[in-house]
């Protein structure tokens, strides 16, 4: 049986993550409040951001910028600005 959460990103009850994928308090908040679907959507955007901005995940500044985008996207519904990408209309 899957774990259900009320996803703060999708604004509906849906399947949650199977385990905490991100460390610390932010990871716990994501695990408790974000669905598998929303996390998968974020991962696609994360890849585009890393590639577009040529981010180095060994660089703490790049990780901090990415985390800020992640929190804004997952919890505030703020789309990251990615050159040439137009999000689908909901």
Automatic annotation (TrEMBL):
Record InterPro entries: Fe_traffick_prot_YggX (IPR007457), Fe_traffick_prot_YggX_sf (IPR036766)
Q: Which GO terms describe its biological process?
A: cellular response to oxidative stress
Care to name a GO molecular-function term for this sequence? iron ion binding
One GO cellular-component annotation of the UniProt record comes to: cytosol
The protein's UniProt keywords, in alphabetical order, are: Iron
What Pfam families is this protein classified in?
Answer: Iron_traffic (PF04362)
Q: Where are the transmembrane segments?
A: none
| SUPFAM superfamilies given in the database record | YggX-like (SSF111148)
Q: Is Zinc-finger among this UniProt entry's keywords?
A: no
Q: Which function does this protein serve?
A: Could be a mediator in iron transactions between iron acquisition and iron-requiring processes, such as synthesis and/or repair of Fe-S clusters in biosynthetic enzymes. Necessary to maintain high levels of aconitase under oxidative stress.
- What family classification does the UniProt entry report for this protein? Belongs to the Fe(2+)-trafficking protein family.
Name used for this protein in its record: Probable Fe(2+)-trafficking protein
Lineage of the native species? Bacteria, Pseudomonadati, Pseudomonadota, Gammaproteobacteria, Alteromonadales
């Amino acid at each position: 049986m899957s774990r259900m959460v009320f996803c703060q990103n999708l604004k509906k009850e849906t399947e949650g993550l199977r385990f905490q994928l991100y460390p610390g308090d932010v990871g716990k908040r994501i695990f408790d409040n974000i669905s598998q679907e929303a996390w998968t959507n974020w991962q696609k955007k994360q890849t585009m951001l890393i590639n577009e901005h040529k981010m180095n995940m060994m660089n703490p500044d790049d990780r901090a910028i990415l985390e800020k985008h992640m929190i804004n996207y997952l919890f505030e519904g703020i789309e990251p600005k990615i050159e040439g990408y137009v999000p689908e209309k909901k």
